[in-house]
Design goal:
Number of helices of chain C: 6
Chains: A alpha+beta, B mainly alpha, C mainly alpha
Mean pLDDT of chain C: 88
Structural class of chain B: mainly alpha
Oligomer: heterotrimer
CATH superfamily of chain B: Cytochrome c oxidase-like, subunit I domain
CATH architecture of chain C: Up-down Bundle
Low-confidence stretches of chain C: 1-13
Low-confidence stretches of chain B: 1-12, 539-548
Distance between the termini of chain B: 6 Å
Shape of chain C: elongated
Order of helices and strands of chain C: HHHHEEHH
Number of helices of chain B: 16
Order of helices and strands of chain B: HHHHHHHHHHHHHHHH
CATH class of chain B: Mainly Alpha
Strand content of chain C: under 5%
CATH topology of chain C: Four Helix Bundle (Hemerythrin (Met), subunit A)
Chain lengths: 331, 548, 235
């Protein structure tokens, strides 16, 4: 791989090799197809070039041939589809025990916040061998978080979370690009992904001063007055939030939703949209009161309440609550 | 130059070109052929304008730093390149120029069903084009041709509303063209010209028209909503006010994906005409090619969300749309295979239109197959919004559509203008276009997979060599596109007079004079033969191939 | 039509309404009516985009949409629905009169149709005026404080979502009203032509096609009325 004429991107995540394998398969099939058609056209064009005294031989067509060259390519394409869909499912499903990193995009920078409280701008430090789940939102327009060396890309939308995940394998510095056009400095909205060995990473992380994100969230939870209604000891005016995250919640109008990151987010910003069964629509909106970063801290805090399973969650939980990792994409 | 001296019947008779010379006789004409010529002139202007912007883009990308222009200017340049090429060139080019000229003649009609609406279409196009030029002169627009919200509604401070209005009006121009074609093809066919005898160019335009009529209104209202949202600060697509930007993308691509078939289908129709004529063959698998056009038109409406695999749609929606997208591959492949099979045991001439047809097959094959890469979910995540996509759609849109269009222009130029073009220069241009095109766009596939995102004004140093290659190719391509314009103009005055049927081609358009009279035929033809009956056409003339 | 074409000999050249490029009147009529139907299809697609947006947001923000919907006057909406339905009837009668060659009846029905259309627009105007008064017009002055009553309690709604409802309300009814205005203009012109005797039992395609257009505009309202006015009225 030349520095001046790169023909292949770096492979620095577990996904990169898998995407490349499928890509090579596609290249092979496409190459063979292209070759066959080019050769066929060239050979036929030369062999049957116009010669005096030699007329064309009329052929109407052949249904059998048509069916053959419809079904066989379609069969081949099905292999593309299946392999591609399996890979996509992996790309879109973060492992359950991923380390979470919050990303806020704005024109034209990436703001990153680690659970430990470390903040970065246009950089993301990650250790090798660790599943990292990115929980991303945008403050303004649509951006797209793209790391070619990891073969991941995910649009980042205002007003909701989207997620992506990766597991870096090779230490080094890799490009981070914004891949969705976002205005003047779109092409400058990039940065570096710094992949480090776990020990180095630990050293780097220890250099940071801040408090862990859930801790920040806990303080906000108290200072914004959330804790007056959302109590853990007795039933308050709002639901007890312990153990709520990622569990099904029965709503006042009879629907059941999964309390994923987007649900928690919506419940803070637009509390009357989905009221939990048995509660009154009394919570005020925090739209415009909390910033995206504070929102992330609150969400991180609510999620952290799942860690010590107290078993006293104040919510009606329908039987057999599935705890499998939920894909947090919004439909 | 066997044909130069002839037809005595042509000189005294008036044809559509000599029927009135004043400006008024052109600007108020309802003759579909004259309207086609008006379109020809206007789309050519827009093509070269769009091409000029393309050259600016390629020049800027010669170096990794943004040094030729400012970031904002670059964003406007690629936006205007995209909008002009998509809405003012690619969508109208083949239907409005070749289709307008040929659809009535090929089916033995005197005109389109609604000649005045046809003229209205052209005026709408001109109004839209003028509006867009005005928008460009007062500062342009920088949203990308896709108008993605919320950037287009709250992010951009350029003339989005005016550009949107221009696109809206241009949309109605194409709605009316499509409506006119459908009615004409249904109601105006000559006696005996049954559906299974229609030339494939007609089938292709028919399928295209279906998309125009069904899809364009949706993008029209979507753009209106964007404009209204921008003007009155509403929240229809703005998440801050309760809207959903993904809804915009769904509505936009519901039209704009089928729109790519508006562009490519008519060119495919042209290629079917060229291959049969220059192989002296009936088309292989007529029914399958005809129905594949309709299949593409219908399936084209079911795959729009494949533009949104990383946009935040649900996992399962993405899988369904990926699956449906592969279905489109089948009718497209059927066409390519049938064209190739048509060559078998033919009597193939390498006249310029045929070279363009070969070029079409070559470029469309690559463009189509790389489309499968993008339909494959796991790959799309990596290559979407990179230069891979840019290369893919240029292979189809520019490689495919323009190869078909230029092939058709050479093929029917004698009919349109009554003159022959210089064959040697034409062959050279076909070669330059093919080579220049591959030089320009093939490196972009590599660039995309390596990770260069699209719409980038500056880029990391390691992408430079591939970008330089691409820019070098684009200059060859530019020469290839300029040449035909020059020698077509030259031929208007100096080209040898064309016979009624210089290629001994089948099809009703060759049975009338070149150029045709105002009402196309002296008497309504009665069709008793299948399309492409090359076995029945004057074999003795076949002995002396059209070599000039 | 261009004039110089008259030289071509056409046996039925006596029919002044037959355009030169059609073989006979039947072909012309068929072409015109197919064209009109296709145009109606484009209209449906045009409104379809907005219906689609409406449905998506109604599902997403049901409470706000229901609360906002209750600000509309069902009485005025129902009255307008009735007006439009009657106008569709008069259009049918006009077409019938044209078919029978009854010029006087034709003109009368056309005029009644236009009057009904104007009635609709005037009522709509009053409704719009009321929205202005109550600051229900989307924009900087928008305000919405009503709540959604789900039967057991009053739930406050997000004003942004209510504004979304009113944005769509104005976009859809405004676009519909624009079509009504065009329709009224069309029928006025047709009434004048009819008065001058342009139409005969052999040629009344414009009346028929304008009638089709009017029915479509009517049908769109038939969908708009329940979607916009009658959300959650069953509670």
């Amino acid at each position: 791989m030349s520095k001046y004429l790169p023909l292949w991107p770096d492979q620095a995540s577990t996904m990169a090799g898998q995407v490349d394998a499928l890509y090579i398969y596609l290249l092979l099939v496409a190459g063979v197809m292209t070759g066959l058609i080019y050769i066929a056209v060239t050979v036929l064009a030369i062999k049957y070039r116009r010669k005096p005294g030699q007329d064309a031989h009329q052929i109407e067509g052949s249904t059998i041939l048509e069916i053959t060259w419809s079904i066989i390519p379609f069969g081949v394409m099905l292999t593309f589809f299946i392999w591609g869909a399996v890979l996509y499912f992996k790309e879109r499903t973060p492992p359950a025990d991923s380390t979470e990193v919050y990303v806020v995009a704005k024109q034209w920078m990436w703001k990153v916040e680690h659970m430990e409280g470390q903040r970065e701008i246009n950089q993301l430090h990650v250790p090798t061998g660790q599943d990292i789940k990115l929980i991303m939102t945008s403050q303004d327009v649509i951006h797209s978080f793209f790391i070619p060396a990891f073969r991941i890309k995910q649009d980042v939308l205002p007003g909701r979370y989207t997620t992506a995940w990766f597991k870096a394998t090779k230490p080094g510095r890799y490009h981070l690009f914004c891949a969705e056009y976002c205005g003047t400095n779109h092409s400058g909205m990039g940065g570096d992904i710094v992949v480090m060995e776990p020990q180095e990473y630990a050293v780097w992380m220890a250099g940071g001063p801040s408090a862990p994100l859930p801790e920040t969230g806990k303080q906000l939870f108290a200072s914004l007055g959330c804790s007056t209604c959302h109590r853990f000891d007795v039933q308050g005016r709002g639901p007890n939030l312990q153990g709520v995250y990622n569990k099904p919640v029965l709503l006042e109008d009879g629907r059941t939703v999964i309390a994923d990151e987007n649900y928690v987010r919506e419940s803070i910003l637009n509390p009357t949209a989905k009221i939990v069964s048995g509660f009154k629509p009394v919570m005020p909106t925090f739209q415009g009161i909390v910033s995206d970063e504070q929102l992330n801290a609150l969400v991180a805090y609510v999620k952290s309440l799942n860690q010590p399973p107290t078993g006293t969650a104040g919510l009606q939980q329908p039987a057999a609550a599935p705890a499998q990792p939920q894909n947090t994409q919004v439909q | 130059m066997a044909s130069a001296a002839i037809p005595a019947n042509q000189t005294p008779k008036t044809n559509y070109l000599t029927n009135g010379y004043g400006l008024k006789s052109w600007l108020l004409t309802t003759d579909h052929k004259r309207i086609a010529v008006l379109y020809l002139i206007s789309v050519t202007v827009f093509f070269f304008l769009g091409g000029f912007f393309a050259m600016l883009i390629r020049l800027e990308l010669l170096t990794p730093q943004g040094d030729l222009m400012q970031a904002d200017s670059y964003n406007k340049v690629f936006t205007m390149h995209g909008m002009i090429m998509v809405f003012f060139f690619l969508i109208p080019v083949v239907p409005a120029v070749l289709g307008n000229f040929l659809v009535p003649i090929m089916i033995g009609a005197k005109d389109l069903a609604f000649p005045r609406i046809n003229l209205l279409s052209w005026y709408l196009y001109i109004i839209a084009g003028t509006l867009f030029l005005h928008c460009m002169l007062i500062g342009g627009v920088d949203t990308g041709w896709t108008f993605y919200t919320p950037y287009s509604t709250v992010g951009s401070n350029t003339n989005v509303v005016e550009a949107g209005l221009a696109v809206f009006i241009a949309g109605f121009s194409s709605i009316f063209t499509g409506l006119n074609f459908i009615v004409t093809i249904h109601r105006m066919r000559a006696p005996g010209l049954t559906w299974d005898r229609l030339p494939l160019f007609i089938w292709a335009n028919y399928a295209t028209s279906i998309i125009m009529v069904l899809g364009t209104p949706v993008v029209a209202i979507t753009i209106v909503l964007v404009a209204v949202e921008r003007l009155f600060h509403l929240g229809i697509f703005d998440p801050k006010l309760g809207g959903d930007p993904l809804l915009f993308q769904h509505l936009f691509w519901f039209y704009s994906h089928p729109a790519v078939y508006i562009m490519i289908l008519p060119s495919m129709g042209v290629v079917s005409e060229l291959i049969t004529c220059f192989s002296r063959k009936r088309i292989f698998g007529y029914k399958f090619i005809a129905l594949s056009s309709v299949a593409i038109a219908v399936l084209g409406f079911l795959v729009w969300a494949h533009h949104m695999f990383v946009a935040g749609i649900s996992l399962y929606a993405a899988m369904i749309f990926s699956f449906l997208t592969f279905f489109i591959g089948v009718p497209s492949a059927i066409k390519v295979f049938n064209w190739t099979a048509t060559l078998y045991r033919g009597s193939i001439s390498y006249a310029t239109p045929m070279l363009y047809a070969f070029g079409f097959i070559g470029l469309f094959t690559i463009g189509g197959l790389t489309g499968l890469f993008l339909a494959t979910l796991g790959i799309d995540v990596h290559v979407t919004d990179t230069y891979f996509v840019v290369a893919h759609f240029h292979y189809v849109m520019v490689g495919g559509v323009l190869m078909g269009y230029l092939g058709g222009m050479h093929f029917w130029w004698p009919k349109i203008s009554g003159r022959m073009y210089p064959e040697g220069w034409a062959k050279l241009s076909a070669l330059l276009v093919f080579v220049g095109f591959n030089l320009t766009f093939f490196p972009q596939f590599i660039l995309g997979y390596v990770g260069m995102p699209r719409r980038y004004w500056q880029y990391p140093d390691e992408f430079q060599v591939l970008n330089v290659l691409s820019t070098a190719g684009s200059s060859v391509l530019a020469v290839g596109y300029l040449l035909p314009m020059i020698y077509f103009l030259w031929s208007l005055r100096y080209g040898p007079i064309a016979e009624a049927n210089p290629w001994n081609a089948a099809g009703l358009e060759w049975q009338t004079t070149s150029p045709p009279p105002t009402f196309n035929f002296d008497e309504t033809p009665v069709v008793t033969w299948e399309a492409y009956n090359y076995d029945e056409i004057a074999p003795k003339e076949l002995e002396a191939p059209v070599g000039r | 039509m261009a004039d110089s074409h008259a030289t071509t000999l056409e046996p039925e050249a006596h029919n002044p309404a037959l355009l030169h490029h059609f073989a006979d009147a039947q072909q012309q009529k068929n072409a015109a009516s197919l064209g009109m139907w296709l145009f109606l299809v484009t209209e449906i697609m045009f409104f379809g985009g907005m219906f689609c947006a409406y449905l998506v947001y109604r599902l997403a923000h049901f409470n706000a949409f229901a609360a906002a919907s209750q600000q509309l006057s069902i009485k005025l909406g129902a009255f307008n629905t009735a007006v439009l339905l009657v106008s569709s009837l008069t259009v049918v009668l006009a077409v019938k009169a044209a078919e029978a060659g009854n010029r006087k009846q034709l003109v009368t029905y056309l005029v009644i149709t236009v009057l009904l259309g104007l009635t609709f627009l005037v009522v709509k105007g009053f409704e719009y005026a009321e929205k202005f008064e109550r600051h229900h017009v989307p924009g900087p002055t928008f305000s919405f404080t009503d709540t959604f009553d789900d039967g057991s309690q009053k739930i406050p709604v997000n004003p942004n979502e209510a504004q979304l409802y009113f944005s769509l309300y104005f976009a859809m009814t405004g676009m519909h009203a624009l079509h009504m205005i065009i329709g009224c203009g069309l029928f006025t012109v047709l009434a004048v032509f009819a008065w001058k005797g342009h139409y005969s039992p052999g040629y009344f395609t414009p009346i028929e096609n304008a009638g089709l257009y009017w029915h479509l505009v009517d049908i769109i309202w038939i969908y708009l009325f329940p979607l916009l006015y009658l959300i959650s009225r069953h509670r």
